[in-house]
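Quick one: sequence plus S-adenosylmethionine SMILES, need structure tokens.
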Amino acid sequence: MGASLSRSQLRRLYDRTGRWQDILSFYSGPAFDALCTRPDWGAVQSMVELGCGTGRLAERLLRTHLSDEAHYLGLDLSGRMVAIAQDRLSSFRSRARVRQTDGRLSVDLEAGSQDCVMATYVLDLLSASDIQAFLSEAHRVLRSWGRLVVAGLTWGDTPVTRLVSSIWKGLHARWSTWVGGCRPVDVRRFLGEAQWDIRHHEVVRAWGVPSAVLIAEPR
Ligand SMILES: C[S@@+](CC[C@H](N)C(=O)[O-])C[C@H]1O[C@@H](n2cnc3c(N)ncnc32)[C@H](O)[C@@H]1O
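Reply:
Sure thing.
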């Protein structure tokens, strides 16, 4: 899968990127649109997001899709991202909390306590073992009918998007920081059939960049 950046490299990178992150991730729009229409967001009362970045998607969900009773917790490795997301979500008061982590994939939440665990454009910068660690932690904290919601870079399925994802992988192999540490990943291959039921998977495209949107339920 190619070498991943270390946690300290990622923290420095995203501390430097700051608010530019929303512009640099120009390719995430269609994936966010697809993801906002998919799960029954109105039924979600508790959710946690790994790698919330600037809190852009959380703000959209809290403003438009989640019920007024829903509570959101955002976690991020970068202090700069956490500060931006806290500022952005401050009007939601105690319904939205954002915390800095040391990058470990375990969360101090009770087993079976969450309706939704979300990660967008994060698994594609984690090592294979960290992706596995995140998925087992998501499985632990989700209720039996909860939803894992993931979006991220993936492999193309058309001539143009196949070319773009190969170029992206090449850039990641040589200049990983240029692409935010992210590379195309097929998250489905990490979801064991015994643990997860994939409810939805689609590939969307923006400017030739393919992203996968995936929703799964723990078994
Ligand atoms: C490409 S950005 C995506 C931000 C946001 N989810 C989005 O889609 O716009 C990746 C984010 O994940 C955070 N991150 C990377 N590794 C992490 C880890 N191990 N734990 C928590 N956050 C992490 C980075 O600091 C950064 O904010």
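The longest strand covers residues 142-153. Residues 7, 10, 14, 25, 28, 50-53, 56, 75-78, 81, 101, 103, 120-122, 125, 180, 182 surround S-adenosylmethionine (CB under 6 Å).
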